[in-house]
Amino acid sequence: MTARERVAGTVANYVDERTGAAKWAKKNLTKVFPDHWSFLLGEVALYSFIILLLSGTFLTFWFDPSQREVLYEGSYEPLNGLHMSAAYASTLHISFEVRGGLLMRQIHHWAALIFMAAIVVHLMRVYFTGAFRKPREFNWIIGVGLLTLGIVEGFLGYSLPDDLLSGTGIRIAEAIIQALPVVGTYIAFFAFGGAFPGEAFIPRIFTVHVLLLPGIFLALITVHLMLVWYQKHTQWPGPGRTEKNVVGYPLMPAYMAKAGGFFFIVFGVTAFLGAVASINPIWLYGPYNPGQISAGSQPDWYMGWLDGLVRMAPPLELHLLGHTIPLNILIPGLIVPGILFTGLALYPFIESWITGDKREHHLLDRPRNVPNRTALGVMSLTFMLVALLNGGNDIIATTFHLGINQIMWFSRIAIFVLPPIAFVVTKRICLSLQRADRELVLHGRETGRLLMLPHGEFVEVHEPISPELAWKLTAHEQAPALALEDVDARGVRRAGGLKNKLRKRISAANAESIAKPTANDLKEIEHH
Amino acid sequence: MRKLSKLRRSALASPLLLVIALFAIGTTFSVASATNKSELTTDQRSAQIAEGKQIFLKGCSSCHGLNLEGGAIAPSLIGVGAASVDFQVGTGRMPMADMSTQAVRKKPVYNDEQTAALAAYVASTAPGPAIPTESMLNYERDGNTAEGGTLFRTNCAMCHNFAGQGGALTQGKYAPSLMGVEPKYIYEALITGPQAMPVFSDKTLTPAEKLSVIKWIKGAENEPQLGGAALGRVGPVTEGLLVWTLGLGLLIGVAVWLATKAR
Amino acid sequence: MSNEIEAIKDPGLPAHVHRKADTDPVAEKRAERQVAILFLISALGTLLFIFAYYFIADDVFVFLPVMGNTNAHQLLLGLGLAIALFFIGAAAIHWAKTLMPDEEVIAMRHTMRSDDEDRENFVATVKERSAAAGLGRRSLIKRSMGLSLGLIGLSPLVLLRDLGPLPKDDLTKTSWMAGTRLVTDPGDRPIRPEDLEIGAVAQVLPKLRPDQKRTLNDIGKDAVLLIRIRPEEFQLSAERLSWTYDGIIAFSKICSHMGCAVALYEQTTKHLLCPCHQSTFDVPRAAKVIFGPAARPLPQLAITVDAEGYLIAQKPFNEPVGPSFWERSS
Fold first, then answer.
1. Which three-class secondary structure state does DSSP give residue C272?
2. Cβ-Cβ contacts under 8 Å, C102 against chain B
3. E strands within A123-183?
4. What is the ipTM of this complex?
């Protein structure tokens, strides 16, 4: 036994005698994780969160979350002698007097943008591969919760420095709260400690931003990861991979080194962005003043779609019995996002209701093999993208020499027209890809080599594909549509006939596919 | 004396003398022309106005009318003043290249002298804002950057963006970027309100305040990149774009490398 | 019947292919060196970071293509940190990829569902334990408990009451009174009508009493935009026309949609545009909404001049300024 092994043995012994963790630890150190780049997207989000905690803690050492008015006498000349809030002045102090402070501010902000982007691409991966199916519905809901909280947390962080841009954001948030029927003005006055902007809001959201929400994040992320750990990771179909096993690398050492190393990669990339690209240059925005505004006032990208929806809303306002209900704010600001996020959270249950599939799934779907789900996903993304682009319509207008009115009208129409088109096109593409898969399995790969047959005809030589690939392309199930009878065995119409009809139609559309090749098909071809 | 004659004989003498002579001529000429510009005699002035009128009739009257009264496609120029002409013609916006939504800055069609003549002609028909003189534009001395910033954010940022990068107006019009615009033209734009821009009167935005605004704009223009590439100074849109392209691109690239099997 | 359609078979996990470094000692040494070099680059990154922190002043600038004149302290500090972090990661991953065991292993899954016996035991335990608690039988306890738990949920709501005052008339009142002078923002100078040329704008606020201090709350409600056009261009009702003075019209600058400062005035079209959501208001028609999400015109402030010839408000705003809210009557 080498000295190193002896030390390891002693440590393991010491820990086990105090925790009894030997069996548990042994099992988990050899736990198997499948390896695929798309499984690392969630890790990007996790690591960005850790970067946010580290850089955010650094920033709190100097940040003064107060709207008390102070006179700026710092080193940034163009603002010298102006009155501003302590929050803004201390952010300037972090940027220009604390060495590395600006770097940390930029890392914090870039990490926030990466965090949200990583959550979104992770969500897309989970959605398009069907990783949300039983038994992972809870984790899907937790994920949607994290996405929602991430938007709120990001917005609060954007609001803290009290610069002209963030103050404008708060102004709009206040207008949304104030728009709520019956209780709006009360909630707004409670939240702001009186009229907008007051002096209470930034101290309050600071506590929420650095304590309450990060605490909830930590709790939810912990549960999210524990469930992944306990339920074991999903895997792509392939040779040797089944619903009953998981194929990959053991945690120790290879996976641990890769995952640990990837944390440093994410941190490094974030630091690189913080070093080379300016983000949120608050000193240029100036201190907040409700009488001032900048052209092109936008939120960060994860709120951009919301701003885009608000911009394209029609000018509707209800006046009823001496009361005002601003639908132009409520519909795009609360109702549509509410429907979208509720639908997103409930999607696993909706899909299982359509397919009638209550089994566990650990093998991922290739998106083309589930055309309806994939098409619905692309349709939703198209909707969000149109909204997001409209959120930046003024920047787009000046960059590409277009008019904001034209872009706005385009968006107003496109938000209704493009998503259904995206659905149809995506579904067709999926079915074509299925057809291509079938061709590949049955006739092999085109080699590009031409062969002249004895009677003079030219044919291209096709090379049969490997059994591994053939299996991968045909491993999926092709479930038939649900057979739902309108009448029961005794000829009586079932209750909920309309619901049944709807379910039947969606299920039929869902089952539309190109029949995957079977061994029989292959044999038949060989005979020819 | 001997020293001088010795110097005269040296090989360097003739080139040196030539340089001195040229320098002297240049200085005298520039002083003379400077005085010419500021203090025209009545005769010279009426000659300049006549020249301006000729240019106007040839190049401008088809749209703005023979008597500056304007027309269906162009506004009246009565009372717009010399400052307005100097701005529009000096920045190349006028004459317009085509009848698009907005006159854009381009290489001026007329030279300084012709522009001055045009300005003098238009100013001679009715009183209007005059071209600011050099002494009125000493923003380094008379301006205050911090005050200028506040004024800029209250009066200018809503169209020209927080850092003077320009922004969108309605129906395809836009507020141009203020980067690299000469102080004189900024001043003239403020007092004349070219195109969609409103006028900022001297009583509501005093000349001293205008200089503060100019000083702040010049400061923003010359401000180095304190935090790295500026991304156009247009706010979160380009930041989001960078995250989705470079940021996620790099990370996914590494993830793909991480997950491929080594050979 | 059932084996009529035969699916393509799973060929099973392919045989493990060894890496070069597994079999070739030269390749192994090379991989080891590569990992070490990556770690060393990271160490150099940290040295650069420390050097930049202590020895590069924060007012040193370097000119770089694309980026322009860039702050060297911030740039090198950040690049040092980025290199230090990135290459630790690169080294660890390269190490794992080339030198750590890379044979794929298979672990079996178990369904989440417990076996039937455990499930029955679980259900039985729940039933038995809850019966022991006797909640079903003791309805008095059940009801009183429901009442107390329901009520205690109210206490946090009660506690939050002191977060702020009730709105009262705060949203409907501004500082504008009959006779309040209009003064420039910033500068606080009173304005005469003749100070504004045709096509001019001015950002104004109400004149403060000597004992008053202007807060952001005030500006958030009081900010007003003055615009002068040719009087004949107005298309106003007689009443609204009487609120203007010699072609000068005054609107609340706080957007009737979501409260941004609407000050983007186009002299040629006489449109006011809000840069936040692009609501467009037509000035000659009392700021009627002609585009965008805003549903109401901007409130108009009635103005006139006082004895000294300065612009003053005729009366307060006749409607609340800013975004809509429930209690607003129109």
1. strand
2. 261-262
3. none
4. 0.93
